[in-house]
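Hello,

Following up on my earlier ticket. Below are the two sequence lines again, exactly as submitted.
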Amino acid sequence: MACSIRLGRWRPGLTKMGNRLMAESSFAVLWRACAAASLALLLSACGGMSRTDTPARVEERTVVPPPEQAEETSEETSSEVQIAAYTPPAQPQIARPQPNRAVTALMRRADEQRGNGDLDGASASLERALRIAPEDAVLWHELAEVRMVQQQHHLVVQLASKSNALASPHDSTLRSSNWRLIAKARRAQGDASGARDADRRASSLN
Amino acid sequence: MATKKKRPARRGAARPAKKTRARKASRRRKKSRSWWKAGVGLLVLSGLLIGGYSVYLGKTVRVKFEGKRWAVPAQIYARPLDLYSGANISAEQLKAELQFLGYRKVANVSAPAQWAQKGGRFNIHTRDFTFWDGHDPGQTVTLDTNASGITRIRSGRKEVDLLRLEPALVGSIYPAHNEDRVLVQRAELPDDLINGLLAVEDRRFFEHAGVDLRGIARALLANIRAGKTVQGGSTLTQQLVKNFILTSERSVSRKLNEALMALIVDARYSKDEILEAYANEIFLGQEGGRAIHGFGLGAHFYFNRPLRELRLHETALLVGLVKGASFYNPRRQPKRALERRNLVIERMEAQGFVTREQADKARQQKLGVTARGAAHGHRVPAFVDLVRRQLRRDYREEDLTSEGLRIFTTLDPWVQQRAAAALSKRLQRIEKGRRIDSGSLQGALVVVSAQNGEVQALVGGRDAGFAGFNRALDAVRPIGSLVKPAVYLTALSQPGKYTLSTLIEDKAVDMTLPGGQRWQPNNYDRQLHGAVPLHEALSRSLNLATVNLGMDVGLKAVASTLRALGVGRDFDAFPSLLLGALSLSPLEVAQIYQSLAAGGFNSPLRAIRAVLDVDHEQLQRYPLTVTQAADPAAVFLLTRNLVEVTESGTGAGVRRLLPKGLQVAGKTGTTNDLRDSWFAGFSADRVTVAWVGRDDNASTGLTGASGAMPVWADLMRSIDNVPLQLTPPPGIEYHWVDGAGRLSAETCDGVVAFPYIAGSQPAVLSDCTEKQGLGGFLNGLFD
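Thanks for your patience. The regenerated structure is below:
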């Protein structure tokens, strides 16, 4: 099994949709440094098995203790606090891997192209970015947005679902945006109940 | 007179004798006519004859010259290479890519298509190129690389986010009469080429009127002096007429026709137009059934470069080939070709087109032609075959072979090269090691990108350059155990009933098939294993447990899983389906595994990204599409299980062949009597399917693990791969479970953390459920 981090039940903060590079507050810089340091530590422990361009995705596991045990222990939390003392000031999980410069540039270009009404160009740029970073959930979402403007509703639902499957479980902003897009596409397809269901899911994530 | 006028025009001028006879008869009938009158008549008549005939020839010329002159084959391009900081492109790959494109290595970069290297630093001047999504101007960049790839790209002092090398031309779809060409325009013809042609073929081209009487006289004189034909008096215009309009028949009348037409062509068209037509028509070589026409394709065919980038000695060779492309074939007759080339250079020098220095330098150069077929196209016949089949759905064959379409494909020439090498080398090694008749094994390899279904490489046989039976598409063989993931995915999609730790029965199967046939399959080891955890049944590829599981979830459900994963052809949902009584091609198998690798999202496999017409206008795009084929959570469980196959199951041997840290998922497949050896699997970014078998369908003596698997591993380790990270999608939880599938505390002995779809974890607790401590946490951390 791959290298894994156990995060316990602690849930990190979220970054805002569209604000891919975390806000450049000194706070964020500090977090990022911590994140990088601990990631580097973990990766070296795991034999450095990933490419170096983007921070590696680290398999997250949420190991839920057996039910009985969970009921028994109120110290459970204290043990987690103890753990936290061993790691550098608990860092928020980077909700999205940092895209590399090429991907950022292509996203910018796609944005411009979309602004100029060049939807084919925008989708071509996003597809190119997806060749570089195929598991980037935000790119799949952006492509779904372009297809929405092109009224390719069936494809929108699929692309947004794909984005959801790749999105970090903690990235509720992105996931909720995807559900809203799905709702919109389903509504356009005449699937009112499906749209309501998607809207409900979107709301539950907010 | 009226009748006389008509007759020759109708009959054509080929029979002058008859005309004279007719005239004689007429004279006998009407003796009163004077000689004077007859003389005038004769004059007028011959004037009309020649005039009429010229009109006829002029029309022939116009038909040929105007409108579309040639059927221009569609050109097939590989994918362009994206270069950016962080790209996992080694210096070795970069050099190979530059070589595919015919870039020249130089000390100092000064022109497009040149590169220089100093340690890990590359200077590259890219070519201009018009892509389907815009024009990229050529630029000079500095790339820094280290062991992990490209670390930085700059243009001058400016950091460059991203650039791409233009795609290599890898093939064309030429028409039935096998003429292949790449059109060039007059402006693209280098001066050296024109000068060379003038020097050797037709020095008074720009002065004469299509026929060069002085040239003919000079040639005649030279031939008389030599006592044999040493010089031809044909002008370029005459040569063009001969090749372009007339047949190659040799006769006086044809020679006259040729001269007459040359005069017409010269009168009607500019010298530039004539040169352009000549440059595109000229025959420059033959490769199998493919005829190389025009200097545009000639430059690619012999030097793997566009015409404008050729140097004097290279251009001179092409000019030399005009006289006889087979006789002076530089690949077969290098000595002859070199002499001819140097003669061209000498004439150019003698006529002052090049200086003594330039000529000397050019003469010292080697021929410099690429190995046969090594550079330009047709070394990827299997892939071109796939492209052609995909194009046929949208285009008429005629348009493909004649409209000069530009086809941008997904082919990754680097991966393709590695794949071809992996297959041929490994098969040789297996044959040697197992004393199998040399050459009896065959195979196929397919590589697709995991998340978007682009076909990156396709090898249709062990001689990848040979356009024969395309096994990657046409070897439709039973897939054996490669089908099992579909059975297990069907089960795991019912989390209320099946999880990775659910115990299933590996017990005897005895049933009657729909045809009345009795079916008693066995395990490979011919043992019964009793109750085994589901994950183990798959990783050990237990047949009986799989059949029992498959019958339990239902054949219909398994069949519909297979269809959702991308099996397009019809098949019977008999129980034997559960053990792979389903025949598919390697490409079709790749589709199934692509859906799995993409987390349950099927992307129809594509070999084409876009099609542009001859003016770079986009005709069609083949966009990225996805369809959810299965629940991503269930696919995640299956993927984890397929990783186990490669770690401790039937595919464990693959670990020894792969670099440390490259986590992959995969499945072996072996069919009855060891006829087919399969391995299908994926990293985070590539799905690869390998098949090894024999064309006569006899036993190979190989299992999936001993035949296809090493081929697969050889390829995967020779290209860059992102390791599978097993990032769980939403809705997955990990729980510690003991060997009997009971929930346990993580500090207990022999427990393993399994992923479960939330709520499906076992309800039964083991005896060991103590509280977990810090040690437990650390175990979890580095599990």
